[in-house]
Amino acid sequence: MNTFTVVEELGVAVVSIDLAGSPVNILTAAVKAEFETLLERLGAEKSVRAVVLISGKPDSFIAGADIEQFVGLPNQAAAEALSREGQATMDRVAAFPKPIVAAIHGTCLGGGLELALACQYRLATNHPKTQLGLPEVQLGILPGAGGCQRLPRLIGVRAALDIILAGKSERAAKAFKLGMVDELVPPPLLRSLAVAAAVRLLESGLPRRTRHGGAVAWLLDANPIGRALVYRMARKSVQAKTGGHYPAPLAALEAVRTGLERGMRAGFVDEHRRFGELAVSAVSRKLVQIFFATTALKKDDGVEPGTALPRPVRRLGVVGAGFMGAGIAGTAVSQAGVEVRMKDAELARVGKGLKAARGVLDGRLKRRRITKQEHQRAADLLSGTEGFSGFPRADLVIEAVFEDLGVKRTVVAELEAVLGASAIVATNTSTIPITEIAEGAHHPGRILGMHFFSPVDRMPLLEVIPGAATAADTIATAVQFGRRMGKTVIVVADRPGFWVNRILSPYLNEAGHLLMEGTPIEAIDRTMTRFGFPVGPIALLDEVGLDVAAKGGGVMHAAFGERLTPADAITRMLADQRLGRKSGRGFYRYEGGKKAGVDAQVYRLLAVTPSDRVSPQTIEQRLVYAMLNEAAMAAGEGVVRCPRDGDIGAIFGIGFPPFRGGPLRMIDDLGAAPVVATLRALQAEFGMRFAPCAALVAMAEQGGRYYDGVTAAAPQPLSGAS
Ligand code: 3HC
Fold first, then answer.
1. What's the 72 CA to ligand 1 centre distance in angstroms?
2. CB 109 near ligand 1, within 6 Å
3. N or C: which terminus of the chain has fewer CB atoms within 10 Å of its end residue's CB?
4. The dihedral of CA 489, 493, 498, 499: what is its sign?
């Protein structure tokens, strides 16, 4: 292996890291071994007075330890040893007799940042691709190569916990402000300024570092009483966020605490011990599987590899300047950097839509996702029209008009009349079959569905739906463009509800049935947030909008019959003009836009008397098994191309608890036979809607599974996607 190349200038060994055959640098066992040998050589070489570590990759410094390695860890002791060895490598860097400077451009994550932290000095490029962070808790582990010890010592306990406990990455400018890096430099000058810094270190020693935050930082970070308060607040906030389902952030907090209160050595021991426990835990295994699944989806254009190439999209048209249209436009300019022309029938609506699209950019600026310059650049890409001016130059048009087949067909016809020969028309629908929308079109091969979730800029999933005649390059173009918009994209079949709303439908119905039996709203929602969903099903109905939910529920009922009959709770709510959060009245009360507890009048409206007759276990079982059964049925019909897509769709689309791995993974964990048995028991008590689907029964009989180990089988092309 030759991951490291060394060039000497001015007595400084510039070590370039470039892991062959990998798009990013990662710290595999072999890389670590080669690095250690190199360190030994450089330590002994008289001509070398200092070292600069720089990457040979375009946009990756080091993306961390090798995650693949975690999968193969046989037991806790092996995981602990891996962390201990990582700590030892970083210790060797920290104790190296000559200054080592990290010259960072691109992603500097996990073990990559831990290495940089062990260096004496850090420069980073002021480039959007440069991100520094410790994302370990997102994989269910903690920074196990000294990160829990070195980061708080460098930037203070509060700032360090903020990064470590959330698994956050920061842009270089913020990292500089926090004191994680010593110099912020333009990319072309990185190497020469790093060499200059190394020479400076040799001549004048380490610069004096001042801690940010003034008196507050001193009070909270620099004395044990202040720190005790910081730990207590951090623990409370972690518990509120994780609901006790994710042990890694609390373990990381303890490792940080041990190190600061009992010394670095004790901290290292605590850190590797806890790393060992976490790395082989079921939660971490699930989160690692999700990492691999999302990484695989980044490369999956939704078509048989080699059958079609995505076409470039430089200009996007958006028809319909409502909430969805504006969300799509705002996200497209800021994430994909394309010109966007929005169209609506009246200029006033166009103006409102453009304002809302700019609101998306303002939100991203406020959350520091983009800089002021990027905000300005993105805003300049937005324009509007009440006609179709500019549309002939669009490569892709996404329509987000009223959810009505006739209206959508008219829009398609109008677009076909003005668009260029290869332009694609995507319809953002959640209920109408794409094949029906494309019926009568001149170029049905260039029409497909792109189902965004609301709010578009915050929801990470996109469903791409080919109709019966959609061409493969149309699919590939939409998938790739969705990814450019920052979405995780799954390609799903043109069946009612597609994937996400299909599996959501029986779950929401069941919540309605429970409510109509008198189960208190709080009990239903609390049970499901304890299960791990971010919000309960009744609160979700309020968020989605009861009119939208009623429409979707009606479509599913019409398509699948009695099994998906909605409870009439929503109809009664609509009769009382309750639309959910957007109307300020739903199952919950809203005060000043904020959710303010269950509206007790709802029970009278529904003519039910709330009672605790149904236990939380039964609530959970009825809701979860309704979804599992539907997921198995839809997967059996080929609504998703593989279990991976189904689980990622459920996690990213409706917040299915990531630590459970998704509904199909959960069936595997429970075993198909026990799932069938539970469904049969529920069927006996509550009726045929719980009858286990044929796919599950067959699986139970044959002892089948969705997954074979860590990854799912390769995705299958959907019918119509040829
Ligand atoms: N380990 C193993 N493989 C990794 C990896 C890692 N840490 N980081 C990236 N890769 C692989 C991906 O699996 C993918 O492999 P493939 O080409 O064979 O499918 C390839 O590198 C490219 O990755 P992406 O497609 O994700 O490239 P992007 O440019 O979109 O994203 C990234 C790059 C932001 C670095 C993203 O890959 C990422 O977030 N990686 C994980 C970072 C991470 O979690 N690091 C912490 C690791 S744990 C650790 O360091 C423990 C330590 O504390 C002891």
1. 16
2. yes
3. N
4. negative
